[in-house]
Design brief:
The complex is a heterotrimer of chains A (about 160), B (about 400) and C (about 190). Chain A has about 160 residues and is of the alpha/beta class. Chain A is about 25% helix and about 30% strand. Chain A has a 5-stranded mixed β-sheet. In chain A, a hairpin with an 8-residue loop joins strand 4 and strand 5. The longest helix of chain A is centred in the first third of the chain and has 12 residues. The N and C termini of chain A lie far apart (about 50 Å). With about 400 residues, chain B is α+β, with helices and mostly antiparallel strands. Chain B has 2 domains: about 40 residues, no CATH class; about 350 residues, Cytochrome-c3 Hydrogenase, chain B (Orthogonal Bundle), CATH 1.10.645.10. In chain B, the strands form 3 sheets. Chain B has a 3-stranded antiparallel β-sheet. Chain B has a 3-stranded antiparallel β-sheet with strand order 6-7-8. In chain B, strands 4-5 form a two-stranded antiparallel sheet. The longest helix of chain B is centred in the middle third of the chain and has 30 residues. Chain C is mostly helical. Chain C folds into 2 domains: about 35 residues; about 120 residues, 3-Layer(aba) Sandwich (Rossmann fold), CATH 3.40.50.12280. In chain C, the strands form 2 sheets. A 3-stranded parallel β-sheet of chain C has the order 1-3-5. In chain C, strands 2-4 form a two-stranded antiparallel sheet. Classes of the chains: A alpha/beta (about 160), B alpha+beta (about 400), C mainly alpha (about 190). Chains A and B meet through strand 3, strand 4 and helix 4 of A and helix 3, helix 10, strand 7, strand 8 and helix 14 of B.
Chain lengths: ~160, ~400, ~190
């Protein structure tokens, strides 16, 4: 991992885009880039490999979030969104990875062994959505009481007072 | 807990019948029994040192802490699920109650995310007003932190003096928008009221509004008062020695664990979202970002103190720019009720770290999914790495330097 | 003795009458003594308790910061005798100042039961009064009075420190009334 600190330059986003797309051809599509932002759609089979590549080769040291999104009955899938920050080699750039997870197989590889910061985020995503992170060291309820048996943030769970 | 003893020392009956007890048997017995010294201590939800509602379980081997297990969730309300039931403007007071010590920063972040999703650019004056509001809240939050550090170290005078200074900044909040905390001041497309509206009947054109004059006076007073408070802690070797040398982690460990904010800058991670990923005209004001490489509690303390001085510097510059833009510049735009479908995320430098909001909108007037990334959620999860190897008496000091606000952790 | 005042006594047997009259006389003497003691010492207890209200050192959410500011130099709750105690065994007042989630519900009940009487519960802020902004949360209790009997409600979101001190002035009046009713008499409902 190369930890030299560089100040922001214009062409970084396209550089990262070409590196990702050439390394994982077909499985990673960079949907758009903005100043200091790279948005990519990633196939579930290579999600961990992409994260490992970002960490080792491109020095993305910090995993900011792991977010779950429930796209509902219409699309029969959920999504896991990662935001990865860079502090050194591409300072200030954030990469957003979106991974589709189908309803009938809610599993995805954990990245908590690459970035320790993803540990609690994955636990929270599991307890609120039900997406299982394989090989996570401790997938238990964190925010809600242990006695809960439902996944609150799924679209199928309605709050009182909503239609 | 303990395993079965591998060596059974023979009892009195067996010894009377001629069994032998060797020194090796006794030593092996003792070495297997040593695990019994480890004890899990629960610093439970009701505990004077825990600034917020959480439980910290530490595993202590005598006086040294070997393991830590934080338990959060006592303040979980399902914020992100509740906002799916509210229209966009109604979420602003809810965002206030995420981190109640520095409430305007979360509302600012939320409004920024909505404006980015709408694709509008807010007026220049609003950006500077938001900078002023952010920095006032940063000062309030850091003073609350320092008051808590005072009580943790045993320095009750620091608690009282910091609370007194915090009252002046809360007065500034009241003058700006009417509420002491959880102010509900930023709006999508601008802010609630202009800083020129307030007390604009002064004869002297230079002052333009009593509020801005008093804001500068408050900064001047605070710059002197902060030195008095720092002398309470820094001139006293007891408090300094309690902070120096504990809670040390390496820079790589810090970045990997996801710690952000002053806790990370006190460990050598040179990143501040205001400088490196600027939003809302922070690139047009001049300020320094303190970074200390040592990585112990004292360096995290020093980083926050220096940030307080930098905040007054930022406020002064922003006030100059607002005065230059004048009374008639716009401060709020009308925005549509529906946000077009898409995904947006925005990042902001909260007093506690890097906070983010990720909005999935679907064209209606309610969000489909709004995720809040709270810095303290990750900082608390790294308690084990921070607390390993310290003494029990150091635990409150190290955790105080993380500056917890449990409302945003549990959401 | 005018027996016409006690028609039921006329119908008693001799033994019954003995035990009934002894009980009546004991009661009159003892409750009279008790009542006098109460009248004399009630004001002293109430003066002591209302000027030394010791709340539990416990902050939940936004209103807790205003509680902390109430002990700051500007508002200074300590001049009313309010010293925060860390252990529930040493407190009189359980001040709940935030929303109550299902995880903390058992602990609040336990803290309340650990406090020795006489004790008072104060709900500070909208969330503790009735759930506040989190009216449709799956994890929040709609008000503190669902779990413990509340004596004082302090409205506000967050409740200003002056509102909190004003609420505690009202609580002082309530403590006065409590001791006027008498502490030593066992049968307080009769008064």
């Amino acid at each position: 991992m190369d930890l030299t600190v560089r100040e922001y330059q214009e062409g970084w986003e396209s550089e990262i885009k070409s590196k990702l797309e050439s390394q994982f051809s077909g499985k990673v599509t960079v949907t758009k880039t903005e100043t200091r932002r790279v948005y990519a759609q990633v196939d579930r089979s290579v999600s961990k490999a992409v994260c490992q590549y970002l960490h080792d080769e491109l020095s993305f040291e910090h995993c900011a979030t792991v977010i779950g999104v429930d796209l509902g009955e219409a699309e029969q899938k959920m999504q896991v969104v990662y935001h990865i920050d860079n502090y050194t080699l591409y300072k200030g750039v954030v990469v957003e990875l979106t991974v589709d997870v189908p309803y009938d197989d809610l599993h995805i590889e954990t990245v908590s062994d690459i970035w320790g910061g993803a540990n609690w985020h994955e636990r929270e995503t599991w307890e609120l959505f039900g997406i299982v992170f394989d090989n996570h060291p401790r997938l238990e309820r964190l925010l809600t009481p242990d006695t809960y048996e439902f996944f609150p943030f799924r679209k199928s769970y309605k709050l009182r007072g909503s239609q | 807990m303990t395993d079965e003893k591998k060596t059974q020392i023979p009892d009195a009956q067996a010894i009377a019948e001629g069994a032998e007890v060797t020194k090796e048997m006794v030593q092996e017995y003792k070495s297997n029994a040593i695990d019994m010294d480890k004890m899990w201590i629960t610093m439970g939800p009701q505990h004077p040192f825990s600034h917020g509602l959480w439980t910290l379980k530490i595993c202590a081997d005598g006086e040294i802490v070997t393991d830590a297990d934080p338990i959060v969730g006592y303040l979980h309300r399902g914020w992100e699920k509740e906002v799916e039931n509210r229209t966009y403007p109604k979420i602003i007071p809810m965002a206030d109650r995420l981190c109640y010590a520095a409430s305007m920063t979360y509302t600012h972040l939320y409004c920024m995310t909505c404006e980015k999703a709408l694709g509008i650019d807010i007026p220049e004056k609003t950006k500077y007003i938001r900078i002023v509001a952010d920095e006032i809240n940063r000062l309030q939050s850091h003073l609350m932190w320092m008051a808590a550090v005072g009580t943790d170290l045993g320095n009750y005078t620091a608690f009282l003096w910091c609370s007194r200074e915090r009252e002046y900044w809360m007065d500034m909040n009241v003058r700006l928008c009417g509420a002491r905390s959880t102010t509900n001041y930023p709006r999508i497309g601008g802010v609630r009221n202009d800083v020129f509206d307030i007390d604009c009947d002064l004869p002297n054109e230079e002052d333009h509004s009593r509020f801005m004059r008093d804001l500068i006076r408050c900064c001047d007073h605070f710059d002197k008062a902060l030195w008095d408070i720092i002398y309470l802690i820094d001139n006293n070797s007891t408090f300094v020695s309690r902070m120096v040398g504990n809670g040390i982690i390496t820079r790589e460990q810090c970045a990997n664990l996801g710690i952000t904010g002053p806790a990370a800058r006190g460990t050598g991670v040179d990143y501040d979202a205001r400088r490196d990923d600027p939003y809302d005209n922070y690139d047009k004001v001049d300020f320094d970002v303190p970074v200390i490489k040592t990585g112990d509690s004292y360096s995290r303390y020093m980083v926050r103190v220096e940030e307080m001085f930098q905040s007054t510097r930022i406020i002064r510059q922003a006030v100059q720019k607002i005065k230059a833009l004048g009374r008639n510049a716009p401060y709020r735009l009308k925005v549509p009720a529906n946000i077009p479908a898409g995904r947006t995320f925005c990042k902001l430098e909260d007093p506690r770290g890097e906070s983010m909001m990720y909005l999935v909108s679907d064209g209606t007037d309610r969000p489909y999914r709004l995720k809040v990334r709270s810095p303290i959620f990750v900082n608390v999860s790294s308690s084990k790495a921070l607390l390993e190897g310290c003494r029990i008496a150091d635990v409150p000091v190290i955790m105080a330097m993380i500056d917890m606000c449990l409302g945003e952790t549990d959401r | 003795m005018d027996m016409s005042l006690y028609p039921h006594a006329v119908a008693m047997s001799a033994d019954e009458f003995m035990s009934w009259s002894t009980a009546l006389i004991n009661d009159l003497i003892s409750s009279g003594t008790r009542r006098t003691v109460d009248k004399l010492t009630g004001p002293i207890w109430s003066w002591a308790m209302k000027n030394s209200m010791h709340p539990l050192h416990w902050g939940l959410a936004c209103c807790a910061l205003e509680m902390a500011q109430a002990s700051a130099p500007r508002f200074d709750a300590e001049r009313y005798g309010m010293i925060y105690r860390s252990s529930p065994r040493q407190t009189d007042i359980l001040l709940v100042n935030g929303w109550i989630s299902k995880k903390i519900r058992n602990d609040i009940r336990r803290l309340w039961e650990e406090m020795p009487g006489p004790k008072w519960a104060v709900a500070m802020g909208e969330c503790a009064i009735s759930g506040g902004p989190w009216y449709d949360a799956y994890n929040c209790i709609q008000g503190l009075d669902q779990i413990i009997p509340v004596d004082l409600y302090i409205p506000g979101c967050p409740a200003r420190p002056d509102a909190m001190i004003d609420g505690f002035m009202l609580l002082q009046k309530k403590i006065d009334e409590y001791f006027k009713r008498g502490v030593i008499l066992k049968d307080r409902q009769g008064l």
